[in-house]
């Protein structure tokens, strides 16, 4: 209860003293403290944002590298495989230089330091070839002087120009389908992509029969699958890893972009009996390649690395050619 009568002058002065607001100094101190709190919160937010972007960029790098190695390694492992024994000699009767396949009887061919046209400067490329898992079998022993194979079904799916392999447990022969495959007959005549119809060894590309080879019933005929892996500009200011499937001796359709941000690919090869990996080179015996060491330089999106540079990681993977090591 107030000591002064209500409404008196002393009582009114005492009431005004209790209602007095903040001074200017107090207000400025409060604003300064508020700014410090807000600044700390903004700093923490920006730091967390940078950490998030760096983590996201690194995740993209790892994701792209994982996808690239997973898909490429699968085809490297299968390179050189056929539907018969892995150890049989392979004869390639395709005309030298007539098709991309003429160099791939050994299952793998590499290109060093931008040697393949259309690839990014300084990067390597690799071609891989193997037989499909499916196939048909020969029903009637082939005539070594004829130019066709009799198979056990008309539902083979082979077309003119397809590259096939026929093999038994003594030999395999790569050839191109000629003519229009009829119900159970697959042609391999001279002309088109074949330099001979003989299918035998030693290969004599004389435009005639060559060295004859007869394939007995139950020999397997299968289509060959091939793909080319390379690094090229992606049209968005960067580089990507691409794969192009090969069909009938030539690239089929558009290149597929497999992994974004791949700046470089370097491939070295281990030859049977050797301990050192070597780069692709003229005269390298591709039939003796038993493993490939693939190194990718992958760059993440944004500029989240040191000094405002993009994050980069160098990742290396070794893949054995299963068909030559098992």
TrEMBL record:
Family matches, as PROSITE patterns: PROKAR_NTER_METHYL
Pfam family, one: N_methyl
Keywords: Membrane, Transmembrane, Transmembrane helix
Residue intervals passing through the bilayer: 21-46
InterPro entries according to UniProt: N_methyl_site, PilW
GO biological process terms on file: type IV pilus assembly
Protein name stated in the entry: Type IV pilus assembly protein PilW
Organism expressing this protein natively: Lysobacter spongiicola DSM 21749
């Amino acid at each position: 209860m107030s000591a002064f009568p209500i409404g008196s002058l002393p009582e009114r002065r005492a009431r005004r003293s209790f209602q007095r607001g903040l001074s200017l100094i107090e207000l400025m101190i409060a604003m300064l403290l508020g700014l410090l709190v807000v600044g700390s919160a903004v700093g923490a937010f920006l730091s967390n944002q940078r950490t998030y972007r760096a983590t996201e960029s690194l995740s993209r790098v790892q994701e792209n590298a994982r996808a690239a190695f997973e898909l490429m390694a699968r085809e490297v492992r299968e390179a050189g495989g056929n539907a018969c024994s892995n150890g049989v000699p392979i004869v390639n009767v395709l005309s030298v230089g007539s098709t991309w396949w003429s160099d791939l009887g050994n299952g793998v061919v590499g290109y060093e330091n931008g040697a393949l046209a259309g690839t990014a400067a300084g990067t390597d490329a690799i071609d891989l070839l193997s037989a499909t898992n499916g196939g048909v079998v020969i029903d009637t022993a082939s005539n070594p002087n004829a130019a066709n194979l009799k198979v056990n079904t008309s539902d083979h799916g082979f077309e003119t120009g397809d590259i096939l392999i026929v093999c038994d447990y003594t030999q395999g022969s790569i050839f191109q389908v000629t003519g229009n495959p009829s119900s159970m007959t697959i042609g391999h005549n001279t002309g088109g992509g074949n330099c001979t119809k003989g299918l035998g060894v030693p290969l004599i590309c004389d435009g005639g029969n060559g060295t004859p080879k007869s394939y007995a019933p139950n020999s397997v005929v299968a289509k060959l699958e091939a793909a080319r892996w390379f690094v090229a500009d992606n049209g968005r200011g960067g580089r990507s890893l691409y794969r192009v499937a090969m069909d009938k001796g030539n690239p089929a359709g558009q290149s597929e972009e497999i992994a974004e941000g791949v700046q470089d690919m370097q491939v070295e090869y281990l030859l049977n009996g050797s301990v050192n990996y070597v780069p692709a080179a003229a005269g390298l015996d591709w039939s003796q390649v038993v493993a490939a060491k693939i190194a990718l330089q992958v760059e993440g999106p944004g500029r989240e690395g040191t000094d405002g540079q993009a994050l980069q990681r160098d990742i290396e993977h070794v893949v054995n050619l299963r068909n030559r090591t098992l």
